[in-house]
């Protein structure tokens, strides 16, 4: 026979107090002596009594849960850097005694339907492609929300992002210092992050004296676009690129595999720089990449959404974090003979 779960009446009876007194002691409410409170807590521990979380949330008007909206695994390419982000959010919410409910966004499901059904007190938004109308709907509903990796958010919403412009400048400066002048760039423009990185690349090339030839900057429609047409167009230039910067480490790994099929040596014939510093970047020869602090982004997002839930102004819950270039084995000086 299954063991009957203890109730608050059992706790009250064992502590020798009324049900009302036991409830106040467990919820740290009312004027109750230290001796009585200790007796109730001791009885609850001995009986292994756990208050019904749903009932308590209804009484308090809060669920004690924050929703983390992320992307479907199959669409992300390399997820390793996101594990640091998820760990940071988890640690940050645990620090404020808040649970995390993970949502993987599915096509056809309205974001407002997912997050505004009363199951969460606030939300952290990871997907990069959230449009202005969707963000506006969440802001209008008054749900405390922190968006990640984008600063263009409605009034009342917080954000945590990284300094993409600085990351691109560091990457271009490193390559220019090694002697590169023809630096290509490859990444879609499907997110605020990618758009900032592309703009940062162009600005850094102008300021640091690298080529600003438009053919060197390629922005494919998505992650799955074939690389061969881009590569052939670069090779057909009178002065092909000697270095390549890509929008994230997923693209970098894809390019490394492709270049191997073309018998192009990295970095002897082409230097390569990524962005993220996913764990895979430190394997093999080691990818030179821009490191973003995923763990810190997650922890700060958790702290900000908690502050928004407590009523803090959104302006106090917005932050841009610094990044740093990590130099490894995929960058070097340009080949004296070129790639042909």
From TrEMBL:
Pfam families on file: LacI, Peripla_BP_3
Domain of life the protein comes from: Bacteria
Occurrences of domain HTH lacI-type (ranges): 6-60
CDD domains tied to this protein: HTH_LacI, PBP1_LacI_sugar_binding-like
One example GO MF annotation: transcription cis-regulatory region binding
InterPro entries: HTH_LacI (IPR000843), LacI/GalR-like_sensor (IPR046335), Lambda_DNA-bd_dom_sf (IPR010982), Peripla_BP_I (IPR028082)
Keywords: DNA-binding, Transcription, Transcription regulation
UniProt cross-references to PANTHER family, sorted A to Z: LACI-RELATED TRANSCRIPTIONAL REPRESSOR, TRANSCRIPTIONAL REGULATORY PROTEIN
Protein name: DNA-binding LacI/PurR family transcriptional regulator
Organism of provenance: Armatimonas rosea
């Amino acid at each position: 026979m299954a063991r009957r779960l203890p109730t608050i009446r059992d706790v009250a009876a064992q502590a020798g107090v009324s049900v009302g007194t036991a409830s106040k002691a467990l919820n740290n409410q009312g004027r109750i002596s230290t001796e009585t409170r200790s007796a109730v807590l001791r009885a609850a521990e001995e009986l292994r009594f756990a208050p019904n979380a749903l009932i308590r949330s209804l009484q308090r008007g809060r669920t004690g849960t924050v929703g983390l909206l992320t992307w479907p695994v199959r669409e992300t390419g390399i997820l390793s850097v996101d594990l640091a982000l998820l760990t940071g959010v988890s640690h940050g919410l645990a620090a404020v005694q808040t649970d995390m409910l993970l949502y993987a966004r599915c096509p056809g499901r309205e974001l407002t339907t997912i997050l505004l059904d009363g199951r969460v007190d606030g939300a952290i938004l990871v997907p990069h492609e959230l449009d202005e109308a969707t963000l506006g709907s969440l802001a209008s509903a008054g749900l405390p929300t922190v968006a990640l990796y984008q600063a263009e958010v409605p009034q009342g919403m917080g954000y945590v992002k990284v300094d993409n412009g600085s990351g691109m400048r560091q990457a271009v400066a490193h390559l220019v210092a090694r002697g590169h002048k023809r630096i290509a760039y490859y990444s879609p423009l499907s997110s605020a992050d990618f758009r900032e990185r592309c703009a940062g690349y162009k600005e850094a090339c102008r300021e640091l004296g690298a080529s600003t030839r438009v053919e060197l900057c390629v922005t494919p429609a998505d992650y799955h676009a074939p690389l061969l047409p881009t590569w052939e167009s670069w090779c057909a230039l009178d002065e092909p690129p000697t270095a390549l910067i890509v929008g994230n480490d997923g693209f970098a790994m894809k390019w490394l595999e492709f270049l191997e099929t073309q018998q192009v040596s990295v970095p002897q014939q082409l230097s390569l720089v990524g962005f993220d510093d996913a764990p895979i970047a430190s394997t093999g020869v080691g990818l030179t990449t821009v490191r973003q602090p995923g763990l810190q982004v997650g922890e700060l997002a958790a702290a900000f959404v908690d502050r928004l839930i407590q009523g803090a102004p959104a302006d106090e819950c917005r932050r841009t974090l610094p990044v740093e270039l990590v130099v490894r084995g995929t960058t070097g000086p340009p080949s004296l003979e070129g790639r042909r």
